[in-house]
Design goal:
Elements (H helix, E strand, L loop, with lengths): L19 E7 L2 E7 L8 E5 H6 L9 H12 L5 H13 L6 H15 L3 E2 L12 H13 L18 E4 L4 H17 L5 E7 L8 E3 L3 E2 L7 E2 L1 H11 L14 H4 L1 H9 L6 E7 L12 H21 L4 E5 L4 E2 L11 H19 L3 H10 L9 H11 L8 E10 L6 E9 L1
Parallel strand pairs: 4-8, 5-11, 6-10, 6-11, 9-10
Antiparallel strand pairs: 1-2, 2-3, 5-14, 7-10, 12-14, 13-14
Length: 422
């Protein structure tokens, strides 16, 4: 039987799921650690670096025989079939491959999530304190840190705050940068309704994902704004709720809520419209992205109508990091001091478009450079700018603080900023 007539089963024509990875060095040996950002699998898999090269061929179009041939072509040595089969078996056991097993797990997880009363905390006690007293101390320290906001009042004190961009990087490291933004909410005028746009790190087929669950935090529940959710669901059906399971293990919204509660005062009642988003700048070009463009346009239209119809004032928060550079993010070499400073200069030039509240200019800037720096927070920032667009009272942004975090042994770097809009 020829390879053309083989049945394309998931074991012989494997398709790797959308996983996250990080390089790892032990002595002179280099490895790759794989894990599932959706949380459907809690497993991790450590593999030799040369195995990582093969994953580009785990696309459902290459048989294992063809994958082995690509390995031979790249490394000049033959990979024994049993070794390749063992790799596929390990990936399948850990639910890292597309197929019936992961589809069934996803179906069961979605049903279980929809039966929950609230979206439970996923990172309390890990990325931030789970005890409310300790969390209060932790957040206070973010404001008081050397890198934190100045003690002098904000120049926007007492003014209406229309929007905020805050990082979603590790709170223990980037906490002071969060505090720069949330100080603006603490000292400015803000409504009781927040549209919180989070980066979906696991990716989204439809670009956007709502959930109607209240969110649990150490300070108590944060309620979803029912008038907005009900209006959008009435207008659009469940189109924006089809991927809501991804809220369960995504940190980008969860990290904002304790800061928001702390900034407003833990006794203040407020509600949110929680939205995860993930779509590339090329979405705006149409073509192969036309259906995604239409979905984004639908979201913007129905959300603006919902705000108007319910008569509510909203503040928009985008949970977004900026550039991702280094081996962990697909670059061939670790960043140097020179390449980081060049990245920083480009970031700040790009953020001028954000400060000008120019969503198309922001997208065009990234498209022009081919998204070489992988601006993962593009979609929430773009949506924030579009939602704030108002010809009668245009928003004006201000970068408050900019910084970076190191994510592995190879100096892979994520940049982020706090930005306020008035």
């Amino acid at each position: 039987m020829s390879t053309e007539t083989l049945v394309k089963d998931s074991r012989n024509y494997p398709i790797l799921r959308n996983l996250q990875y990080s390089p790892l060095k032990q002595g002179e040996e280099q490895y790759i650690v794989l894990w599932d950002p959706t949380g459907l699998s809690s497993e991790k898999l450590v593999l030799p670096l040369n195995f990582f090269y093969l994953f580009q061929f785990f696309d459902g179009e290459h048989s294992l025989e063809q994958v082995g041939a690509e390995y031979l072509k790249k490394y000049g040595e033959f990979m024994m079939p049993d070794r390749l089969n063992k790799l596929v078996s390990d990936l399948d056991d850990k639910l890292f491959l597309e197929g019936e097993r992961i589809e069934q797990v996803h179906k069961q997880a979605l049903e279980a999530y929809r039966q929950l009363d609230v979206r439970p905390m996923a990172f309390a006690g890990k990325q931030y304190e789970a005890d409310p007293v300790k969390l209060r101390v932790q957040l206070d320290a973010c404001y008081q840190a050397k890198e934190g906001p100045e003690k002098t009042p904000s120049e926007n004190a007492g003014k209406p705050i229309k929007g905020l961009v805050a990082p979603n990087f590790d709170m223990k490291e980037a906490g002071p940068i969060y505090a720069w933004g949330y100080k603006e909410l603490r000292e400015g005028q803000v409504p009781d309704v927040f549209i919180v746009l989070g980066t979906c790190h696991a990716g989204l087929e439809g670009g956007l994902a709502f959930t109607d669950k209240n969110f649990e935090t150490p300070f108590g529940q944060v309620a979803v704004n029912r008038p907005l959710v009900d209006y959008i669901r009435k207008e659009s059906g469940d189109v924006f709720f089809q991927e809501e399971l991804l809220h369960l293990r995504e940190h980008s919204l969860e990290f904002q809520l304790p800061f928001l509660q702390h900034a407003l005062g833990e006794g203040r009642s407020f509600s949110i419209l929680p939205v995860l988003c993930s779509f590339p700048p090329a979405t705006l070009t149409g073509g192969e992205y036309q259906s995604l463009f239409e979905r984004v346009d639908q979201f913007l239209s129905v959300t603006k109508r919902a705000i108007h119809a319910t008569g509510q004032q909203v503040c928009v928060i985008a949970s977004a990091n900026l550039a991702h550079i280094g081996i962990r993010y697909g670059d061939q070499k670790p960043p140097t001091d020179f390449s980081f400073h060049r990245c920083m200069q480009t970031d700040l030039e790009m953020l001028k478009k954000v400060e000008e509240a120019d969503p198309e200019g922001f997208a065009e800037f990234i498209l022009k450079e081919g998204d070489q720096r992988k601006i993962l927070g593009f979609s929430p920032i773009f949506l924030l700018l579009k939602l704030l667009a108002n010809d009668e009272a245009p928003a004006k942004g201000q970068v408050l603080r900019y910084d970076r975090g190191i994510t592995d042994q190879f100096n892979s770097t994520v940049t982020y900023a706090s930005i306020v809009f008035v």
